[in-house]
Each structure stands twice: as structure tokens, then as C-alpha cells.
Amino acid sequence: MVQLQHNIPHAENKSKVHISVTLAVAVSLVLIMAGIWNAHKTGQIAEENIKTSLQLQRLSDSIRFHQESMSSAIEYALTTGEAHWHNSYETSLLNLQDVMHATDMSFSNSIVEKIQREHGKVIALERQIFDHIADGNQDSAFSLLASDNYQDIKIEQEQDALTLRATLDRKAKSIIDTLKDRLDRTTLALVMQIVLIVAIWLYIIAIVRRWQRHQGKHSEELTRLAHYDALTGIGNRALFQLRLEGAFQQSRRDNKAVGLILMDIDHFKDINDSLGHDIGDHLLIKVAEELQKACRESDTVVRLGGDEFAIIATNIDKKRDSAILGNKILSIFEQPLQIQTHQIKTGTSIGLAFYPDDAESADELLRKADMALYEAKRHGRANFKFFDTAIEIAARNKANMQADLQIAIDQNQFALHYQPIIDIAKNSVIGVECLLRWEHPEQGNITPDKFIPIAEESRLIVGIGAWVLRAACEQQVAWENKRLPSINMAVNLSAVQFNERDLLEQVEQVMLDTGIRENQLTLEITESTLMETEGDLIAKLHALKSLGLKLAIDDFGTGYSSLAYLKRFPIHHLKIDREFVKDLPHDSHDIAIARSIIKMAHELQIDVVAEGIENQAQLNFLKEAECNYGQGYHFGKPMPAKEFEDWLTRYSNQNYNNIRAIK
Ligand code: C2E
Ligand code: MG
Ligand code: MG
Questions:
Q1: 3-state per-residue secondary structure call for 434-446
Q2: Which of 503, 575, 611, 622 has the most ligand 1 atoms within 8 A of CB, as the residue to mutate?
Q3: CATH superfamily of 237-387
Q4: Stated pTM of the model
Q5: Which residues are CB-contacts of 521 (< 8 A; sequence separation ≥ 6)?
Q6: In CA terms, which of 59, 165, 225, 447 is 20 to 30 Å from 561?
Q7: Residues 6+ apart with CB under 8 A from 500
Q8: CATH superfamily of 399-662
Q9: Tens digits of per-residue pLDDT, 641-660?
Q10: Residue 436 in contact with ligand 1 by CB distance below 6 A
């Protein structure tokens, strides 16, 4: 969307510039062609006019020359009596006739015709004069020369010749004037064409410059979009890579450390899900703003994606400076953040790693800061952790454990132990909790607390959990078949399993396959699982309940669920976490918590199981507080199936075989 908004004007401008330049080139070419044609035409006209002008000049000169030379020839012939002057007369005459013939005299026909007419008469008379001279008849020649007829024609001819010459001179002058005028006009046209071409190109240059400036801004904008996060306006992963490399170079020059701080917002997904994405977006914007305020100008704050932020802090004295920054970041979340009309209380976990001490490359630094972040989360959120080798070892162990877990699945290294659950008032066994055990070939027994989180992270828990459910149900049916007292089987369900799309089908299938009676199966779901559930939690719980099985909330009190939630959940049991049982009956807080949980649960018709009962005093207190059921080492530790059967026999004997199902 953002990109489109920027691209359209750019494309429009580009095509405008393209059209303008094409037009300018076309107009310029037309003008240049017109200029060339005009100059060529002017040249042609000039050439023609000059030719005509020269011809006229020549004719004028020839007439004058002929008249002079003709008079001289007759004069010489008469005075000397030599007839050969007739020849030069004839030559001059021929020359004049040639010139007359070659000259276009359309402009003065009447005079030319008149001259030609007179010319014929004069030539005839003058030839007679030369004939008389040739005959030695000088007197006749003189009298013809002096005759009025000849003299009149001669005078008239001379006058006409003068008129013609004047006309010719005028004509020559007019040609020159026309030519001058034409040249002036051509020059003016050329100047105007040049001015027009220059103006067009100046305009085009201005357009192109403006476009280039626009393009410059456009490419700046593209660079900005490529390096900055569209939502928060802070840097993105691309800028992060760039700045981190730059920071490394500076660090090598200045011999100072570069700190990488990674953080994310606790339970961001829940905020998004419960308050909507718009609020989630505004929270991200707010956090980005606060982070920038907390950092120095020289630090780079980026959003790596989702709710994950990173800060590159240069020039730092490692622990001290970055601990200050870490605390500043934590303090952003100390108070609820005001997002529109909502006061959002959230937190953050922070991981820190340093170049060059912890890592030599960007990837390694990021990986190590990420390990530190993971460690911070593991230590219960809202804190920061520096990367150290212990973290790396833990991460490596985790990776090894994941690989070992896969082998454990393939080689059936898992077993199930069963811990009894007792009806406190009746002192009878009402069920067992099935607890997973891993017998590692080298490391021996590994407790679920250590491997279940890793199995969850790698999703291996899906397969493991499915096996547990099936094996536990089979065991329950086997005990039924052995005619042991009816025992409810409680199976722990991981959050990952709970979020599986086909959980309902899976459970139903196991129940069908094993033939377990529906009210003999309880699924234990921890409080935190319920909190992390995607989609409609209540509907999911109802669907499970509709299979006839029982639902229990495990480790109650350690998560986030409030007692108010309980009334909406279709659950049968609530298991008070052993943390609140441990210090009973001495710790006044634990007393208050245990009592209120039991009271509240009973008001909601929910039975309560107390976990981790280790002594009689705890049991007495819980009995007095009317807690329904108890589980703990005081009754029996988790044990293999066979051992549990023996235990059950012993326990039943001790307690007058008073074993019954709850309902
Ligand atoms: P949980 O479901 O709350 O199980 C009770 C844990 O408390 C068991 O630890 C049990 O051995 C221990 N416990 C019982 N009574 C006492 C007592 O009196 N004192 C003390 N200190 N501890 C007592 P365990 O077997 O180590 O299991 C730990 C957790 O691992 C379980 O807590 C459960 O959340 C998880 N887990 C165990 N098996 C499975 C399983 O098959 N699937 C899943 N998803 N989680 C399991
Ligand atoms: Mg449990
Ligand atoms: Mg528990």
C-alpha cells in the first residue's frame, strides 16, 4: 500500500518527462528542418536574383558599349574611308544581340520591342552607310548619316536605350533590395527559431532537473522504506544488519565494545488477542518511542519483527553502561502503559551480548543475545541477562537433550509412574496421577521438569503426550480388568497438546481404543496452559468435558488466572500448587491462600486437590480446611505400575479397604 502510493506519482512523472522530451525533440527537429529549408530557399532565390541582376548589368553595359563603339566605327570609317570598320561594327552588333538574347527581358517588353524595331531600321541604314563607304562613295555615306531620317531614329534609339538602361538599373536595384529583404527575413526567422529551440530545451532541462530531484527524493524514500519499520518508524532488520556492521568497524577503530540488547514484550500475543490488533500496534509504537527516549542518540533502536526489539549500543563500557540501559528499559514497563483508553500492564525480558567479547560476527552476536534473552525469560520474565558461557552450555545441553529425546522416543526410554490421590475425609484412594519418567541410558533418571519444557519447545511433546495418554488409559483398564478398586487416571496435558487442532479427536480415539470408562479419566491442564490457549478456550474445555472425562486445573496459584476465571471454566478439580502447601500450617500467607482457594472453589462446586502433602501437620490443616483430596509423599511417591499395585494393597488393608470412586 505504502509502496503503491509512492510508485504511482513516480511513474506518472517519468512518463510526463518522457513525453516532454519527445515533444521537445520533435519540435526542435521541425524548427531545424524549417531553418535549413528557409536558408536553402533564400540561397536559391539569391542565386537566381544575382544571376538576373548580373545579366541586366551586362545588357546595360553591352548597349552602352555598342552605341559608343558603333558611332566610333562609323566615324572612323567615314574619316578614313576604310570599309573594314564595318567588321568591328558587325562584331559589336552580334555581341549585343547575343546579350539581348540571353537576357530575360519580360519585365520591359514594350521598350525592348521598340528598341528592336528601331534597331532593325538603324542597322539597315548603318549597313547602307558602310556599303557607300565600301563603294568609295563617301558623299552618299555622309548625306545618309546626316539625313534627318537617320538622325531622328538615332536620337530616338539613344533615348530608348537610356530609358532601357535606367529601367535595367532600377530592376537590378530592386532585385538587390528584394534580396536584402529576403535575407533580413531569413535571418530573423533563424534567430527566432534558435531562440525557440533554446527556450524549449531550457524548459526541458528544468523539467528533467525537477524530475531528477523528485527521483532523488523517491529513491531516498525507497531507502527509508527498505530500512525502517512501517509501523513504528524505527529501524528494521535491514538497518539492524547495516548498523551492526558499522558498529563493529567503529569498535575495532576505537577499541570499545558494542552491546546488543534484545527484548520482547511479555504476553504480547495475549494483548493482541484480547484487545485487538489495533491496540497491539499502538503498544508497539509506544514501546518503540519509549525505547528511543531511553537510548542515546548514537544507539540504534530497531524492531526485528513482531514484538521483538533490538538496540545496538556503541562505545560502551560493557556491563556498567548496558546495565543502566537494561534497567531503563525495564522501568518503561514498571507502570501500565496508556494505549488509547487502555492501561496495559506488561513487562519485558532482555538479553545482552557484546562484541567482541562474546561474538565475532553479527550472526553470532544475535544468537548469543537471543540465548541470553531466553535465559532471562526462563528466570521469570521482567529481568535482563548478560550472555555468558554457562548460558551457552545450557543452550548446547538443550540442543543435545532435544536430540536425545528423539532417540528416547525411538527406543522407548520412557516409563510411567503413578502417584496416588487420596480422599482426605475418607482416607481412601480415589485415583492416581500418571507422571512421566525418562531413564536416560547414560544420565540415568531425568526429571520431567528438565525435559518437558524442551520437549514442548521442539513439539516432541505431541508424540510423547499421545503415548502417555494411551499407555495411562491402557493401564487404568488393565487395573480394572484385574479387579483392583476403581481408580481414576489423571494425565497431564501440555499446552502444546492442548493447542493441537485435533486434540478432541485424539482423546476420543484413545478412549475408544482402550475402552476406558469416561469418568475414569481426568485431564490435568495447568493454569498457564489455559492462559496461552489460542482460540475459544471455554468452547474447547466444554468439548473435552462432553466426552465424559474430568478436567482439573493443575498448579493452581502459580499462573495468572484469577479466581474469577474459575466460574467460567467447566472444571471438576482444582489442584493447589505445592508451593502453597509447603509451609502449611505455619505460614500465615499460605494459610490464607489455601483457605480462600478451597472456599472459593467449593462455592463454585469445584473439588480441591492439595499437591505436595509431605507430613501429618499439613494433612491435618487441609482436613480442617475441608480440602477434598490430597496428593504427596506423605501418602506415596510416584511409583511404577507394579509397585503401585502392591502399595494399593498395603494401603487398602491399612485403611479397611475403604476405596471408592469419587462419584
Ligand atoms: P505436576 O503435574 O504438578 O505433578 C506433581 C509433581 O509433584 C510431580 O513431579 C510429583 O513427583 C511431585 N510431587 C508429588 N508429591 C510431592 C511431594 O510431597 N513433595 C514434592 N517435593 N514433590 C511432590 P514430577 O513427577 O517431577 O513432575 C513434574 C511435573 O512435570 C508435573 O507436575 C507435570 O507438570 C509435569 N509432567 C509429569 N509428567 C507429565 C506428562 O506425562 N505430561 C506432561 N505434559 N507433563 C508431565
Ligand atoms: Mg499434574
Ligand atoms: Mg501440579
A1: EEEEEEECCCEEE
A2: 611
A3: Reverse transcriptase/Diguanylate cyclase domain (3.30.70.270)
A4: 0.59
A5: 473, 476, 488, 489, 491, 511, 549, 550
A6: 447
A7: 462, 506
A8: EAL domain (3.20.20.450)
A9: 999 999 998 988 776 544 44
A10: yes
